[in-house]
Batch of 2 targets.
Target 1
Amino acid sequence: MLLEKLNWRYAAKKMDPAKVVSEDKVERIVEAARLAPTSSGLQPFEIIVVTNAEVREKIKAIGWNQSPITDGSHLLVFAAWDNYTAERINHMFDLVNEVRGFRNEGWENYRQMLLSAYPQRDPETNFEHAARQAYIAFGLALAQAAFEGVDATPMEGFDPKALDEILGLRERGLRSVTIAPLGYRQVEGDWLVNLQKVRRPRDQFVTEVK
Amino acid sequence: MLLEKLNWRYAAKKMDPAKVVSEDKVERIVEAARLAPTSSGLQPFEIIVVTNAEVREKIKAIGWNQSPITDGSHLLVFAAWDNYTAERINHMFDLVNEVRGFRNEGWENYRQMLLSAYPQRDPETNFEHAARQAYIAFGLALAQAAFEGVDATPMEGFDPKALDEILGLRERGLRSVTIAPLGYRQVEGDWLVNLQKVRRPRDQFVTEVK
């Protein structure tokens, strides 16, 4: 099922500006990202869903003028934590205890281990670690979009600092890492739509150690 | 469909050593990773599938002694390129041209842009970029495992340098980034299996810019 959807999806280069992705589909796409596994369950990133036309025009200008940014109906921005702080770590562990209704000793020891390790590391190392987690969720959001029949174009071609400014992310301790417009492919005008998907053959991609 | 599977999955802490994941399931899990979208389609990572018992014992020893590494039947190792080189970039662009049977001018211009940008950057920056792409595929492999009814435990708790040595990855221009044993949960002995999955509520995770 998933493989079929992954074969269907591609990075749409031209979206139909007349078509709008329904809110329930967007919600499920975001939900796939929210359910993604992350290191220690910390979910060290957030998603900004931009529909505002003016804001998306600004983002397009710092995003190589890629048309899906404004021709799609929604733009997902994945923004990772700029650092792991004690407050952020404690917030998640407290939430886990609250939801589960008890404190697990091993889990509390694990909290102390993280508190003694992460906040002392340099922020850039922590940001890179957080960014990687965001990419797990990014992949799952793209997969869910395919299940919804929605086109999503994964994009790294933008100026992250400029995007952070447009969305006021740094003040919130966040840094943009990757984006994806959601919309519907416009077959006319998309050079990529009918081209074959290319992946390295299995023998160049997988090694077995038996 | 995907959301249901993501709700089913969890990071199994104890796997049943008597149960073996069938090869066709492993193939489809790897295939999901192979189909993952990556920046410029470069697929800057490989997967090593380890079944060898002795090798997995060694990996367990440098992986915090986490039992699923040896109790599962397969261990997936995601290893990212240590750098972007002209040779690697050209290899993928040549493959695309070969599969599609023609040269697209825009695509060739894009190749030149990458060649003028990536190989000159410092290797660490390129490795981090490649690692992020591996995480997209990692997420999709975990999702496919869930579709197969297979447990997969995402793990970053290992010594990457030691793992690189065990598998001889550096000589191949690769660096391990994340691993996942595949197997079947053993309900007895797994402290996590019956605990509620916890994720930050939507309002702490998503912002809308309307």
Target 2
Amino acid sequence: MANKHPYLTTHEGKLYLTDQEKGLRTSLEIKEVLYEERSPYQHIMIVDTVLFGRALILDGIVQTTEKEGFIYNEMISHMPLAFHPKAEDVLIVGGGDLGVAREVLKYPFVRRVDMVEIDARVVEASRTYLPEVAAPPDDRLHIYFEDGALFVGRKEAAYDVIIVDAADPVGPATVLFEHPFYAALERALRADGVMAAQSDSPIHHIDVCKRTHSSLKSLFPIVYPYFSTVPAYPSGWWMFTLASKRYDMLRPLDPGISTRFVNDAILRGSLAVPNMFAQALFSV
Amino acid sequence: MANKHPYLTTHEGKLYLTDQEKGLRTSLEIKEVLYEERSPYQHIMIVDTVLFGRALILDGIVQTTEKEGFIYNEMISHMPLAFHPKAEDVLIVGGGDLGVAREVLKYPFVRRVDMVEIDARVVEASRTYLPEVAAPPDDRLHIYFEDGALFVGRKEAAYDVIIVDAADPVGPATVLFEHPFYAALERALRADGVMAAQSDSPIHHIDVCKRTHSSLKSLFPIVYPYFSTVPAYPSGWWMFTLASKRYDMLRPLDPGISTRFVNDAILRGSLAVPNMFAQALFSV
């Protein structure tokens, strides 16, 4: 039985969103499609899933969910913020669901957060349908609706921390995984700046992980790959990369920062690299 | 299009093995069924998967795979062996694919490994079709083909380390997740013994995780839940539980022990408990 939603399939009378990677099909059961539109940039859906609650879907790919999206958002945010002793100016590239902004704004010493997101409709939809994920209103948050690579290209020594919360390296986000963009990030950071980027699945795309790692190694003296489980993403395992100009050690997580996933031991433990990935990432 | 294999489905001309949990269908593409039989205990298949190479399937559920099964086997074995300073007598309950035996036998100070597995046909099939997983022949390994709970019930202060590599808590393995069995394990361990058990998926079965944790807490002074990604299992995230009578600290992993996943930092990092699970496991 067909349904009227692109990207969704019907199986035994139930709606599913399916991610097909090499040899693995992962299908999330959908209770209801709450919102759907084709923006100038992509196809946007907000659905209610059986397992993870509400989810933001872009071009058929899960971006974040109500019930576990905080794992990804906390891992990509608190790691760089624990490396920098006191980040005041933070840039988020992408991050349209406002989940990363929510984490960054928890720090009272952060005085300004710039966020550059290409698609205003994603922010709008997230604010309306994903209040559990999206940051509440905050005067420190400034959102620019434009191309992230162009925005970063105009900045020099402007930020203490930059977080790249990009969609997958297919379509418009492809440039956000390439060397010229990382070089621009390096220039946009201050002399003691720290950055973190999502680096795709080490199970399905170890090539992307490896390219990101070597690209950042050629630009920054201190680079750490780190890993976390993110249940709603294909294979459930995700890599991030941290790059730092000066700081090489995690501060303890600030007391009073409230989290559902990360704590000091999780942040430290996530810097441990399984042998199999060390071999793939560090071998020349 | 139907196919002749129970538990497998055909989709667009390709064979899949599907795991259906609440709201999530995970389907592994199968290249070929290499072996299939119905033993007195269960349905056994060895298949060749596109993503993870060869896999052992019992009653339609993935038990181990050639390309990532070592993650599970290393996590369940090296953690208890790093807690005990010098385990000489080790018991494996279940473990029919001989993957845990392979890890345990890497330690030269281990002088005897008893393994109690209900189904001789699983061991036979693994030896034939999964040489990458199954332990090579070793005089120290003694396999008993009988009911694990009955075997353990006859033992007293006989082992330094016990590893429970049970199938899911449905069907014959159900008793291996219940309090009387854990109490029997406690009696079968020496006064300084350490045990580890797989404790199911914290995403799909946090109730099983929590029950295991409280059951072992009532029997042992030292209990640690720990977590790892296991890509071929549903949700990709798995919990294990370590229980120890005396030792509270990991020795460094022995030099010369060759691993593909674990190292000291991974073992230590895996003892970090995400806030969300700490709340579920430790709250009364």
